[in-house]
Structure formats: C-alpha cells, structure tokens
Design brief:
The relative contact order is 0.21. The chain has a single domain, classed as AhpD-like, CATH 1.20.1290.10. Helices cover 61% and strands 0% of the residues. Helix 5 packs across helix 6 (109-118) and helix 5 (85-98) packs across helix 7 (121-143). The protein has helices at 11-28, 34-48, 51-63, 68-73, 85-98, 109-118, 121-143. It holds the Pfam family CMD. This is Alkyl hydroperoxide reductase AhpD. InterPro entries: AhpD-like, AhpD_core, CMD-like.
C-alpha cells in the first residue's frame, strides 16, 4: 500500500509539520527522561497501529541507547521486569490516554496517582503533552497511510526551529 498523500510536500502540511516539530521540541527539551519519552511514544503508536511512528520511535530510542530487550517488551510491559515503576506509570498513562473511548473514566485515579508519585509538575506537563502529541501524529500518519521502514534517526531535527 502506498501513501495516499505526502503531508511534507504540501505547503499547508509542511507549515503544520514545522509547528508540530517545534511543539515536540518543547517536550524533548523537558526534564522528562528521553527514554520515557520514546517508550511512551512507541507504546501509543503500537496501540494506534502507526507503523511510521513505531519505526521512528524504535530507531530514536535505540540511537539514544535503549536496549533491544526493553524495546521488544514495550507492548507487554505489564508482564515484564525491565521497566521501572516510574516508566510503568508513564506507560499506563500512555495507554489510558490513548484509549480514552475504551474506558468510562479516561485516565484512572490510580494511574494518575502513580504518575504524581514519580514525576514532578514539569515532567507531568511534558508527559501529558507527549501523549496528546503522539496520538495526533499517529492519526495523521495512519490517515494518509504513511508506512514505517524508511525513517532515519534525526530526520525531523532540521524541521524544528
């Protein structure tokens, strides 16, 4: 299946991509650990079936030093021993924030309490923003059939100001 549309070759799409990348830089430059950022992005992308984003965040995480074992276990994080309690809280928030329509409460009080236990206010702001941003990216890529496999580490760094 070929991509339906190339957002990056369209004037409006390119303008939006630049602003989107700048929003991502705010999160990237926050005190939320980079490994947590990539794990959360990967997990939301898995749930949403976004091959493009799974490709990008797996490669970015690996380039930042994330182990293959941890990357391979993200989808089964509840059944593994390789994630910290803080990472588990972030992954739970990513899942519940991605599956809003599947739960009557959205993000549970239990998950929120775990997030509050492990992250400060700036990190929480970055984490909530990240969950929203990756879900938006997943939706755009899935809508236009942007397929995974061709992502190169750092390729969007030049897009942001």
């Amino acid at each position: 299946m070929d991509a339906r549309f190339n957002m990056f070759e369209n004037e409006t799409g390119a303008k939006f991509a630049k602003r989107f990348a700048n929003a991502g830089m705010v999160i990237h430059q926050s005190s939320l650990p980079r490994s947590t950022q990539e794990l959360v992005s990967l997990r939301a992308s898995q749930i949403n079936g976004c091959g493009w984003c799974m490709d990008a965040h797996t490669k970015e995480a690996a380039a930042a030093g994330e182990s293959a074992v941890r990357l391979n276990l993200v989808a089964g994080w509840r059944e593994s021993t390789v994630f910290t309690e803080a990472e588990q809280a972030a992954l739970a928030l990513a899942e519940e924030g991605t599956r809003l329509a599947d739960a009557q409460v959205g993000v549970s009080d239990e998950t929120w309490a775990q997030v509050r236990k492990h992250y400060d206010d700036d990190q929480i702001a970055a984490l909530v923003s990240l969950v929203a941003l990756i879900n938006a990216a997943n939706r755009m890529a899935v809508i236009v059939h942007q397929r995974g496999g061709s992502y190169e580490v750092g390729m969007f760094a030049a897009v942001a100001d």
